[in-house]
Design brief:
- The protein has 262 residues and is α/β, with parallel strands linked by helices.
- It has two domains: 142 residues, 3-Layer(aba) Sandwich (Rossmann fold); 85 residues, Rossmann fold (3-Layer(aba) Sandwich).
- It is built from eleven helices and ten strands.
- Helix 6 packs parallel to helix 7.
- The longest helix has 14 residues.
- It is globular.
- The structure holds adenosine-5'-triphosphate.
- Adenosine-5'-triphosphate binds next to helix 1.
- This is ABC transporter ATP-binding protein.
């Protein structure tokens, strides 16, 4: 089976500095992949290259066999890849329900044509209703997005991300800034709403990584040094060295990798 997302010899330079240094990655349909690595390794840059916010210096990104490297984000979105934007894509002064409804209409292009918009409003309402339930915000239906708690905003953002029905979902640090309880709840939510889809997530919380990922890609200094199932990643000496190196500075990530062995 051909991979749904394939990255071939991808590079990105900022000025003279090569930040992404020849990444190859092939993600299968329905797989959940976590991208981990020390701070500054290039994880967000990689996501920006896949989702179209940045243009690759060289190399290829293929979505279902079609080249998407360098296409604008909206075009990539319409081809079936959606990315979360750390709550910046919410409309604060719209209700939860209306945020979901807009997100349902927008990727299909209804936003441009008023009559088509009206004709499809019924479908959009039904879809928004379904999304509301999926992300657990039914009780917050009429609340303005700006009045939600941070964790609720992140849940709404997931709803907005998946609203268009994209098959490949990219989430950038979905649990950042959450408490332990919220993180656990949110991990289950992500698992539920991405059922049957392909998920790529950048994540620092090793509990989330090991609870969610079928495979883990470890990015260090702009290269994928390992891409394997969680148990193999944990046992990989190169990965341990990368994290222990960082742990001299922060301790947190190395400890988390060790703790996830339990
Ligand atoms: N637009 C840019 N111009 C110049 N340098 C950049 C730009 N974006 C990112 N970088 C640099 O690229 C490197 C990788 O950054 P990136 O944000 O991709 O790392 P990361 O692995 O996501 O880090 P973190 O885990 O801390 O979020 C960093 O050294 C960063 O300063």
């Amino acid at each position: 089976m051909a991979p749904i997302l394939e990255i071939k010899q991808l590079t990105k330079k900022f000025g003279q500095t090569e930040i992404i240094r020849g990444i190859d990655l092939a993600v299968n349909e329905g797989e959940r992949v976590a991208v981990i690595g020390p701070n500054g390794a290039g994880k967000s840059t990689l996501f920006n290259l896949i989702s179209g916010r940045l243009t690759p210096t060289s190399g290829e990104v293929l979505l279902a066999g079609q080249s998407i490297g360098g296409k604008p984000p909206y075009a990539i979105n319409r081809l079936g890849l959606a990315r979360s934007f750390q709550i910046t894509n919410l409309f604060g002064k719209l209700s939860v329900f209306d945020n979901l409804r807009c997100a349902t209409l927008w990727p299909q292009g209804y936003g441009y044509t008023f009559w088509r918009f009206l004709a499809n409003l019924h479908d959009a309402n039904a879809r928004a209703e379904e999304l509301l339930q999926m992300v657990g915000l039914t009780a917050k239906r009429e609340v303005l997005a700006m009045n939600l708690t941070y964790a609720e905003q992140r849940a709404l953002e997931i709803g907005v991300t998946i609203a268009g029905g994209a098959q490949v979902i990219l989430l950038d640090e979905p649990t950042a800034g959450m408490s332990n309880v919220e993180t656990e709840h949110f991990t289950q939510l992500i698992r539920r709403v991405t059922e049957g889809k392909t998920l790529l997530t950048v994540e620092h919380d090793m509990g989330v990584v090991f609870g969610l990922a079928d495979r883990i890609a470890v990015v260090v200094y702009g290269q994928v040094i390992a891409f394997d199932e969680p148990a193999a990643i944990q046992a990989n000496p190169q990965v341990q060295a990368a994290y222990l190196g960082e742990a001299h500075g922060t301790q947190a990530t190395g400890d988390a990798l060790a703790a996830s062995e339990g």
